[in-house]
Amino acid sequence: MLLVLCVDLDDDLGRKTGLETPAVGRDAVEAGAVALATADPEDSDVNVLFEGVHLYDDLAPEETVEVAAVTGLEGSDVQANRAVGEEVDEVLAGLQTGEEVRAVVVTDGAQDESVLPVIRSRVRIDSVRRVVVRQAQDLESMYYTIKQVLNDPETRGTILVPLGVLLLIYPLAVLASFLGLPGAVLGLSSAALGLYALFRGLGLADVVDDLVERARDSLYTGRVTLITYVVAAALLLIGGVEGVNRLAEYRQTAGGSLPVTSVVAALVNGAATWFAAAGLTSSVGQITDEYLHDQFEWQYLNAPFYVLAIAAVLYALSGFFLQTVSLPTLAAVLTGGTLMSVLSTLAFAIIEGREESEDGDVRAA
């Protein structure tokens, strides 16, 4: 048996005519179509109901056919789909047939077709007929597609944010021209678009969300690293400034243009001690947090020694290029830094190995 099912997801038929649904049978569906056309001639669901009657008349001579109109609810798509499912169950329960029921679903666009999975879970669907007025071909589907795009948070942010920035450029440029700052506004607008394009292109949204979540967790759980990272960032900033100052001093002393190696060496020499302090601060904070949360391992203590060794090597090497550190001193620092890192690694590895063996002996006992 074939069931021609006319779907009115937002219940125009019931709201505008007062008729009860589901409407089952050719006469009931035709009466509903006439009533809806009388109440609202521009409603596209009128075409859906008449198409259902038309299909019934075409197929009735060839096989057993029934036609029915089911409606949902206005407003909520979820509740509307549930209402359609309940009315489909009511229609199927009222069919007096021992044959397998198959359905031809008639809709007026993509919005009503969102209920197809609900219908398919109850009856096999042979085909879907979308009815639209010829003068407005695909108009409702276009409207529904645009509506879905604007309701999706990710798509909305991708499309509307750059569009909003572009639309703001002209009024901001007019305001800037009035204030005498046209270049600044255009530059800021271009920078905003560029940063947004890089942000979306590199997929940094998840990274930023993860950083924010970790910062919030650190704040609520009292992690020391939250403070030490802030202090380390301040020290890095100071180190950068000191590096630039050292470069300015060296350029003034040299009294001319500097080779690339001297520029890099001056920047590193001025910033090395501050960068080392930042590394020590952050590593001590991380070690403290691991200890407080019972996740401490001896190998974590390698970090401060590595930071000191690397800072000493960079400071001495940059000083050598700036001719403030002699070659024997550079060799001594390189040797000392290497020995410090190797000995710390060996020492903490031995300590951790002994602790693991002692724990194993305790468990065996």
What's the gist of this structure?
InterPro entries: DUF373 (IPR007254). With 365 residues, the chain is of the alpha/beta class.
Report what the structure shows.
This protein is an alpha/beta fold. The protein folds into 3 domains: 2-142, no CATH class; 153-203; 221-364, no CATH class. Helix content is 70%, strand content 8%. The chain is built from 13 helices and 5 strands. The protein has helices spanning 12-17, 26-39, 45-59, 77-94, 116-120, 139-151, 153-179, 182-201, 205-221, 225-254, 260-292, 302-321, 327-364, and strands at 2-8, 23-24, 65-71, 102-107, 124-130. It has a 5-stranded mixed beta sheet with strand order 2-3-1-4-5, sandwiched between helices. Strand 4 (102-107), helix 5 and strand 5 (124-130) form a beta-alpha-beta unit. Helix 7 (153-179) packs antiparallel against helix 8 and helix 11 packs antiparallel against helix 12 (302-321). The longest helix has 38 residues, at 327-364. The radius of gyration is 37 Å and the shape is elongated. The model has no long low-confidence stretch (mean pLDDT 81). InterPro entries: DUF373. It comes from Halarchaeum grantii. The chain crosses the membrane at residues 157-179, 185-208, 220-240, 260-282, 303-323, 329-351. This is DUF373 family protein. It holds the Pfam family DUF373.
